[in-house]
Amino acid sequence: MEKINPAILKTKQHFQILDGLRGVAALGVVTFHFMEMAYSDYSQNFIGHGFLAVDFFFCLSGFVIGYAYDDRIGKMGVMEFFKSRLIRLHPLVILGSVLGVLAFLFDPFGGHTEVYSAGRIALVFLCSILLIPFGAMTDRGFNLFSFNAPAWSLFWEYMANIVYAFVLCKLKRGYLIGLAIISAGALCFVACRSHNLMGGWSSTNFWDGGARIFYSFTAGLIVYRFNWIIKNRLGFIGMAILLAAALTMPFSNNWNRITETLVVLFYFPLVVALGAGANLTKGFERLCNFFGKISYPLYMTHYSVIWMFGNYYAKYKPATGQLSLIIIISLILLVGFAYLVMVLYDIPVRRYLNNKRQRELAK
After folding, report:
1. Which whole number is the average pLDDT over 23-46?
2. CA distance 209 to 59
3. Which residues form the domain of 227?
4. Is 3 a domain residue?
5. Is 5 within the bounds of a domain?
6. Cβ(133)–Cβ(121) under 8 Å?
7. Do 267 and 223 contact (CB within 8 A), yes or no?
8. Which of 16, 84, 95, 13 is nearest to 338 (CA)?
């Protein structure tokens, strides 16, 4: 077996505005999750399409994976690629599950822990840390990952990475376009059948998640492979406004299947292409770097608080002004917590695992 040069595993330079947009999308998802606990009617939710941030994540992932690995996966090999992705993603999958089970057991505002046996809770937790879909808890909405609901998108991210390693990394551009057309058809079918693109998080809409990442990941990869990077002067603020516009567009049960499909099919790939080509002024460099770094910790650790907030809201029904204040303060605290998680847990764990891996490769 040919020895791998450890230098090939080094991370490439980032697209800073895309990092910043990842943070904007993460904040959008967290805000959406707070709001949907209070407003079951999404038309009353000012960020009723916040869930589309996941499709943006998927599209961005296709672009970034292509940029980071297209020219070196053949040299590093499939197993090293999988190790890279596991080290990058899984420590927070585990922590998010731990926080989720703690929130379930010690929620000060309610819950029904007595309904589930210790064995059941242990099984759900094990499935959560191993990313095995298991929607088995009624008071967790039968989420595929009851202790950390957003992990459903990580499950599909892992599936996309596997398909990339074995198929997509070798696929010529023409075939990639053909695959995108097929996946676009699947996405349109899901939108027409379900009347929206909100699915993927439970056993009843499991395959909707596959359609969502099947297209968006492929589209992001196409943007990179065809070098559809559009130079522009929109900057970070301009790009953030474009992304936020998609998440806050009006929610209409009559039009969602059309508007959401158009956003995912065309608008998000365009946003990625513009974000990759936008000029970043020095004043926003630190903000984009910060947003990029805390986006994944924020995404994977916030939902334990969301469940507790949901129980609090159901019990006390705070007025609109109080509700707004609670959500704003919670967002600030969650960003701060995500930063601490990044500094005290995620970075040290990944550094330890990467150093250990480098030593093994150097032998």
Report:
1. 95
2. 13
3. 24-353
4. no
5. no
6. no
7. no
8. 95
Helix (H, G, I), strand (E, B) or coil at 132: coil
Q: Tell me if 247 sits within 8 A of 32, measured CB to CB.
A: yes
Given a cut of 60, whether residue 101 has pLDDT beyond it is yes
pLDDT above 70 covers what percent of the chain?
Answer: 97
Structural domains in the chain (count): 1
Is 307 in contact with 107 (CB distance < 8 Å)? yes
Find the length of the chain: 363
Alpha helices (runs of H) in the chain, residue ranges in sequence order: 16-38, 53-69, 73-76, 78-106, 118-129, 151-166, 173-194, 206-225, 235-247, 256-262, 268-277, 285-301, 303-316, 320-341, 347-362
Question: Residue 339 and residue 318: Cα distance in Å, rounded?
Answer: 29
Confidence label for 136 from pLDDT (cuts 50, 70 and 90): confident
Which of 93, 84, 82, 80 shows the shortest CA–CA distance to 11? 84
110 phi, psi to nearest 5 deg: 135, -160
pLDDT at 296 over 80: yes
Distance CA 237, CA 153 (A): 27
Q: What's the pLDDT at 362?
A: 77
User: How wide is the angle at C-alpha 154 spanned by C-alphas 77 and 275, nearest 5°?
Assistant: 85
CA distance linking residue 354 with residue 362, whole number of Å:
12
Looking up tokens 């190790």 gives 83
Closest by CA position to 10, among listed 60, 63, 72: 72
Domain assignment present for 361: no
- Inter-residue contact 81 to 165 (CB < 8 Å): yes
**Rounded distance, CA 287 to CA 19, Å?**
10
Residues with Cβ within 8 Å of 217's Cβ and at least 6 positions away in sequence, in order, are 58, 59, 61, 62, 65, 160, 164
| CB neighbour burial string for 80-107, b if at least 16 within 10 angstroms, e if fewer | bbebbbebebbbbbbbbbbbbbebbeeb
Q: Is there a domain that residue 13 lies in?
A: no
